[in-house]
């Protein structure tokens, strides 16, 4: 029986583990397929407070893990196959570890950025290919930038990146954009935003140690073209990592966990969500860490209010 199990080890999960451990709750943290979360695929991070010279993503995650361990958090690797939140204590089935019981569960499994799945893309993540304009836009001052996508996120990122780049070219598979009219209008009114519509991305092309551009197929002429750029930002959406919950938690239409405003509380008392798995707007390391702190404090308060519960009754059921 654990007082709290934290599922996921990104900034949210590790911050929750730090706070829980300092409160003598001895949390168990389940590391999945990507310990440290998406930041382990990021090179230099310059917008996380406390590091005036920046810090590498893997180093930041390793430091947070060591800090949690220092206060007594326990880490185990495994893939959460399913959970049972119908009764307390909650049951968490982990591949290789079996069934674990917990008084509270904090879900911090994040959201995975959708990628194009074209040659050269994965090889150049953090080396010119990015899925986060706010994280990496600073590195492309006076550079040519490409944004792939046609939704609101793509329009927002294109506008944001014009603060840094000399030009931003929006590449979309179709002639029509999915973005709302107001977001399209904002992008079209921006003189630094260029358009390459009705073009299908084929390959991220490199030259030497850097990017040369994006090879695309012109769907009208059926000819291949190279759009030169120093950076390619993929903005085709995110997928929250919530399939293992099997609809036991209230989520929105996309799959993001719905929490009570101003808290990390889900519709199930004792189950909390933090980080990108419940954040459809900010998706930043610092905001994820902040929500991890909130989740730990919410879990601690929940346990304090339920100390007299007879767990043997639930276990007997």
* CATH homologous superfamily designation of the largest domain: FAD/NAD(P)-binding domain
In total, the number of strands is 19
Question: What would CATH call the class of the largest domain?
Answer: Alpha Beta
CATH topology (level 3) name of the largest domain: FAD/NAD(P)-binding domain
- Overall number of domains: 2
What do the pLDDT scores average to?
A: 91
CATH architecture call of the largest domain: 3-Layer(bba) Sandwich
How much helicity do the residues have? 10-25%
* End-to-end CA span: 16 Å
Residue stretches low in confidence (pLDDT < 50, at least 5 long) are 308-317
Beta-sheet strand percentage? Answer: 25-35%
Determine the structural class based on helices, strands and strand pairing: alpha/beta
Tally of separate helices = 7
Major sheet size, sense and barrel closure? 7 strands, mixed
The H-and-E topology, N to C, reads as: EHEEEHEEEEEEHEHEHEEEEEEEHH
User: What radius of gyration results from the CA coordinates?
Assistant: 22 Å
Outline type: elongated
Organism: Paenibacillus crassostreae
Family: Belongs to the class-II pyridine nucleotide-disulfide oxidoreductase family.
Cofactor: FAD
Subunit structure: Homodimer.
